[in-house]
Amino acid sequence: MNFDFRQMVLTLIFLAPTAAAVIILLTPKDKTMFVRVVAATATFISLALAIFTFLTYDRNVAGYQFQALAPWVPSLGISYHVGVDGIGLVMVLLTGIVGFMGVLISWNIKDRPREFFAFFMLLVAGVFGVFVSLDLFLLVFFYELSIFPMYILIATWGSTRKEYAAMKLTLYLLVGSIIALIGILAVYFSAQFQPGMLPEGMTRTFDLLLLQQANIPIEVQRIWFLPIFLGFGVLAGIWPFHNWSPDGHVAAPTAVSMIHAGVLMKLGAFAAIIAMRILPDAAREQMPLVILLVTVNVVYGAGIAMVQKDFKYVIGFSSVSHMGLVTMGFATMNQVGMNGAVLQMWSHGIMTACFFSVVGLIYDRAHTRQINELSGWARYLPLAAVAFIIGGLVSMGMPGFSGFVAEFQIFMGLWQGPFFGQIWYYPIIAILAIWGVILTAGYVLRIVQQVFFGEWDPHKWHDLRPSNFGDKLALITFSVLMIIIGIVPSLLMNTINLGTASLMKLLGG
Amino acid sequence: MTGEQLLHGLWAILPEIILLLLGILIVTIDLIKRGQLRGRSFGYLTIAGGLVVLGVIFYQMLNGQPQPELAFAGMVRVDLFVQMFRMMFAVALILAALISLDVKGLKTNGEFYGLLIFSTVGMGFMAASNNIVMLYVGLETTSIALYMLAGFIRESSVSTEAGLKYFLFGAFTSTILLYGLSLLFGFTGGKTNYGEIAAALQRLVLNQETLPAMVALVLITVGFGFKVAAVPFHMWTPDVYEGAPTPITAFISVASKAAGFAVFIRFFLTVFGPLQEQWIGFVAILAAVTMVLGNLVALQQRNFKRMLAYSSIAQAGYLLIGVAAVGALGTAAVLFYLSVYVLTNITAFAVAEIATNATGSELIKDLAGLSRRAPGVAFALLAAMLSLAGVPPLAGFFGKFYIFQAAVGYTNPAGQHSLVWLALLGVLTSIIALYYYLMVLKIAYVDRAEGEDVPLKISGGFRTALTITVAGMIFFGIFATPLYTLSTLAAQTVH
Description:
Chain A has 19 helices and two strands. By secondary structure, chain A is mainly alpha-helical. Chain B has 20 helices and two strands.
């Protein structure tokens, strides 16, 4: 039998939610339970497959594994090419976890659950697709596929200026992605290959692995590096293109916020570093400029989070700040910093998903998110309080939690400076960025104190009900993960290291 | 002309002959049995005819000769390029008939289907013309039938107004076109055949006497620009689209536009081939203005059909990018885009008709509650809007991608990628477009309306049409290769 499971597994990972979306759309309207079960099963299958790939990835060989390659539009050099390296692997695992927990958290959604889960499945499928794509066309295909369900999900099931936020988010992200696409086209048309590098009968290609080896003229690199990097970087919330993100986070329904801040923003960073892979010469020149932008992210995001009155906005701006650290890590241009960046992607993903599920739990009961109206919730939802505090400690970069390992490496990378020579302002940026972390401690502690401790007045709330099994499972999983990775970071670092090593090699370091 | 040549020629235009006979048949039955035939017989007959024609085209494509068939002393030229357009026309005809089956005032009317078929015949000849006389005859056959169709509902003043406006604008631009053609005829020493005119123009270019030819080019662009609804020849579009019966609007917006592009591409590439360097910039500017204006004005529309009219103007702009990016890539992109556009726009107008029937209003805001009343129709609307906006996994994504790819990849004789700016402008305007497409979806999915709990009954014709189009949009959005390969082969026959 000509069926190689290792080749099929990445395809199955995103096919499971896609199939679920189709099944759900074909289900009669009133079969809500069936719809939920289908969604949960599909995301669980994806999660199981993600764990399988993570465990069986051959760390001695490294590089891209689980590859599958099939022609798609051969005349243009577009192929269906999937595979993961150390970075993609961690991201796929993260998506698997957050996707499954997202279904559990939205179990009791009331308004048109069929449509909600169908779009949610499409979103998850698109996100998986981006992380496994090795063909740039395929990548953009999945990238945009994961943006448009967000619009419907936020505009229909969201809250707080949801239509405005949904539109803003969609427009920002699509502008970014299409500009990046034009940049990719420019690269595609100017890439020069050694004879024999391309498969028979092909003159151009979108294949990432081939483009990485191509010779791309330096002028083209200089012009198109920033459009591609920042075009995708919009989704990573790079300042000054971050504006959609807090509004979007706040307006989205809980599960969508989780996926959105937890995974989708990593999609931006993940796609942006593609620009570093294919345009390494320009990356060396221009990444030191990008770092100036993201310094604003780190400090400004945290500063704005301090003064927010809405609980969810605090988390929204904290994401801007933390995602700034991710891009900063990549912009250090050395391996320690990049390791930190990837781990920060993971750690922020879990932490934010945890934050948003807690916010969702409270909002469903209190119907307000104003920080000064809430108090004492640790009495009523102790597990949520614990999970939030653990998330808070991760966010502050407290030793013993995953955030510390990530941020520590990023700052170390900053001190160390780029591999091709120290740049004078990198240490200054490290100092500024540490201020961002201090501000983080400020806003996290403020929320913990106000929302979770203080007087508990059960008569103030009319919609109190205990959290259900799914909520608890999600919160416990997130908390455990944050602690385990904090204590034994090598569980992930071994894998991440392989990915960043090959990225550094491409950059010439 | 020998008998063999005649047979050969008749075989080449078999699809048009079949349609013509069918049209005559329908009109005759209608005359004889006026008022006695009820139900959907004429509609079914039209659909059956369309399917037969599709079959014939497939048969001809599979068994045709590799080189183009020139028939009737070079009046008509049938190649893969023409066959692809014929397929689009036949599909548009079938879909338009399907969505007319249950529309009051159209469904039992033989004249209506007859005119629909006659205009399709005209489009076939437009696409296949290889001679300026043939071109003009084909164009007028199409247009006159469409004028009548636009004003078909005589009791309705908007429909009559639409018909009259369409006629006046059409007659005006067609005269200008005719003037341009006559100039061309004069300057080139009395030639009517495309190839001969091109050869004569080539001599003029060599002698650096291009000015008269440029005047003809501008005049001819007016005529073609009217057909494809390019700015500034688009004035008729919103009024006609709004006033005409919706199935006709759908048909005009896709088939007539496709026919316009068929002649646009063929004429500019062959006849004006020698003037290519001069007209590329001209068409690029036309494309730019059309995209910008179409999208900006569409933003402000409240009437759904008017919004779609401006959106279809903007779409003409994107297609013109493909025309300006001269080369097999550009033409293939236009062919792919148009084929997908046939499915997409007909879906949008079908949903407009369903919503109007349900609420009695054509306003966008009255689409509210659609997702609760008719989830299937709302989903079709979602697919259509996203495909128009170019979002995967819908076919429109590939369409836009191919267009932008052709523009970025175009190199001028000096070897520069000189149309990247057009691609970037296309990107920016498509973001504007995304805004108003998403607003429609927002209203259909989010907004509440009275009576939103009453399920909507969707008749068979609409259901069939929407199923076909949505399936097509998703299929070509994932497996775009077969259609794109066909487009590429077809594009090579005009280069």
